[in-house]
Write a structure and sequence with these properties.
The chain is an all-alpha fold. It has one domain (11-147). It has helices at 6-10, 12-40, 47-69, 87-101, 104-116, 120-147. It is globular and about 50 Å long. The two termini are 12 Å apart. The model has no long low-confidence stretch (mean pLDDT 86).
C-alpha cells in the first residue's frame, strides 16, 4: 500500500512526523526480529542483525523496484529515478522505516566483538554472510519490484 500523494501537499512538519512514525515502526520490528532470530537459531554468530539487514536489503530493493516501475523506466531502480509523485513515499519508507530497521552500526559492533573475543572465523563469516547476500537480495528485490 502506497502512502497517498497528499503528503506532498502537507509540508515539512508532516513529513517529519511520518518519518518518526516509520522510524519507530522500523526500530520496533528490528528489535523483534533480532530477538526472535536469537531464540530460533542459538549460535555465536549475530544472527539477529544478519536477519534484519538481509531482510532490509530485500525490502529496499523491492521498494526501489516498485517505485521505479511506476515511472515506466526499466533501468536500475535508484532513488533518483523514483517518480516525483512517489518521492515522499520513498523518503518515508527508505529513510524512516528501513533506515531504523537495518543497522550498519550494530553489525559493526557485533563484528568487532567477535574480533575482540578472538573469534576471527565468525567475524569474517558475519561480514561475508552480510555483504554478498545483501547485494544479491537487493538486486533480486529490484527485479521483483519492477515486475509487480
Amino acid at each position: 500500500m502506497m502512502i497517498t500523494p497528499f503528503i506532498l501537499q502537507t509540508g515539512f512538519p508532516i513529513l517529519l512526523a511520518w518519518l518518526a512514525i516509520a522510524g519507530a515502526a522500523g526500530a520496533c520490528l528490528r528489535y523483534g526480529v533480532d530477538r526472535l532470530a536469537h531464540r530460533l537459531i542459538p549460535t555465536s554468530l549475530p544472527v539477529g542483525i544478519l536477519a534484519v539487514n538481509l531482510s532490509g536489503a530485500l525490502f529496499i530493493g523491492l521498494l526501489a523496484g516498485i517505485l521505479t516501475a511506476h515511472t515506466g523506466t526499466t533501468g536500475n531502480a535508484w532513488a533518483g529515478e523514483v517518480d516525483p509523485e512517489y518521492h515522499t513515499t520513498w523518503i518515508i519508507l527508505s529513510v524512516g522505516f528501513a533506515g531504523s530497521y537495518t543497522t550498519f552500526s550494530g553489525w559493526m559492533v557485533q563484528t568487532a566483538e567477535l574480533v575482540e573475543a578472538g573469534d576471527l572465523k565468525d567475524a569474517l563469516l558475519n561480514l561475508l554472510l552480510s555483504i554478498v547476500p545483501g547485494i544479491l537480495l537487493t538486486l533480486a528485490g529490484i527485479r521483483i519490484g519492477l515486475r509487480l
